[in-house]
Amino acid sequence: MAVSTGAGAGSKFGFTTGQVIQEFLYDDDADPAVREAVEEATGTELVDEEYGDVCDGTLIWWREDDGGQEELTDLLVDAQANLDNGGLIWVLTPKPGRPGHVRPADIEEAARTAGMLATSATSAGEGWSGIRIAARTRGR
């Protein structure tokens, strides 16, 4: 199966031109094609964990050795605090069978604990899967 690159791969995350996307836990194993596709879709460079302003979306590169559900829950809360209303959070984890893989159920549980919902999943590149996390909406 061919891996999509370019603006199509970046926009499949729901990111659009002009958005600022904050990236957490970037390391040497992060997929450069995914990063480049997001930058191409937004027309802006990804900003790091130290970014001090509001952003429009978040990529979290999460691996088994980054911590357990508690640590991911805390990171999701921190990431959401930096988001503009309606911003998207994507948790990217190595695909099954690859070192560092995290079960989707563990990510979903961390999201629930943080008061959020895991809403969809996608193949984020050759070696990574992505799970979209959204804030819960309150009924009126």
Q: What do these coordinates show?
A:
- This protein has 140 residues and is of the alpha/beta class.
- The protein has a single domain, classed as Rossmann fold (3-Layer(aba) Sandwich).
- It is built from four helices and five strands; from the N terminus they run αβαβαβαββ.
- Strands 1-2-3-5-4 form a five-stranded mixed beta sheet, with helices on both faces.
- It is globular, with a radius of gyration of 14 Å.
- The N terminus is likely disordered.
Number of H/I helices: 4
Gyration radius (Cα, Å) is 14 Å
Question: What is the tally of beta strands?
Answer: 5
Main sheet specs: 5 strands, mixed
Strand order of the largest sheet: 1-2-3-5-4
Shape: globular
CATH topology: Rossmann fold
Note poorly predicted spans.
Answer: 1-7
Give the CATH level 1 class.
Alpha Beta
Q: Give the topology string: H per helix, E per strand.
A: HEHEHEHEE
Oligomer: single chain
**What class do helices, strands and sheet pairing give?**
alpha/beta
CATH homologous superfamily assignment: Vaccinia Virus protein VP39
